[in-house]
Design brief:
Largest sheet: 5 strands, antiparallel
Number of strands: 9
Oligomer: single chain
Structural class: alpha+beta
Helix content: 10-25%
Length: 188
């Protein structure tokens, strides 16, 4: 059976990716070298649902499910916000940029996508939806103990007009993302 590694996401406008690249540079200058694996700005996105290994034979049904979900939601607006960490700043594993704006619309879209994936074999996710943009993955959090790193993010607009099924090919140089399908939001 042929599979791809896939996820469903919202893509960012170029201006937002440029702002996050600026933030990465500021933070990289404040943190010890090689403690963080920074996400390349050109592939930054907001994940709605990670699908993992997905049978190519299921792709048409997933495309249909996304098209159906997208017709039930109008475009909405989000914006960049503050920096944060998962699980927390004392034991950081992931550095992220927060999201503000129409979070209820984002959560409703995520819930709709989850519902349409149930009949296709994906289970409901148990963890609560926390919209964010991963900007770095920390290799060794012990090296960051006691460092008070920070950067001010410009609260740029993130218009959400579509959702995308993206294939993720893992390579030694980092992931390569290919958009396999796009569904435009359009409340009917």
């Amino acid at each position: 059976m042929s599979t791809i590694r896939a996820f469903i996401a919202i893509q960012l406008p170029e201006k937002a990716r440029n702002e996050l690249a600026r933030i990465n540079e500021i933070l990289a200058g404040q943190l010890p070298p090689r403690t963080v694996r920074w996400v390349k700005p050109e592939i930054m996105h907001m994940t709605l649902r990670f699908l993992g290994d997905t049978a190519v034979s299921k792709l048409p049904a997933i495309y249909n499910a996304l098209d159906t979900s997208s017709t039930k939601h109008a475009p909405f607006m989000l914006s960049l916000d503050h920096l944060g960490c998962f699980p927390n700043r004392k034991r950081p594993r992931v550095i992220w940029a927060g999201i503000q704006g129409e979070l209820g619309a984002a959560a409703a879209l995520k819930s709709e996508i989850d519902q349409t994936l149930l009949p296709l074999g994906w289970e409901k996710e148990e963890r609560p939806f926390q919209p964010h943009l991963t900007i770095g993955q920390i290799k060794d959090s012990r090296k960051l103990q006691g460092i008070n790193w920070q950067a001010d993010i410009e609260k740029l607009a993130l218009p959400v007009q579509a959702i995308h099924l993206i294939e993720s090919e893992l390579t030694p140089g980092g992931p390569i993302y290919t958009v396999r399908h796009t569904s435009q939001l359009q409340l009917n």
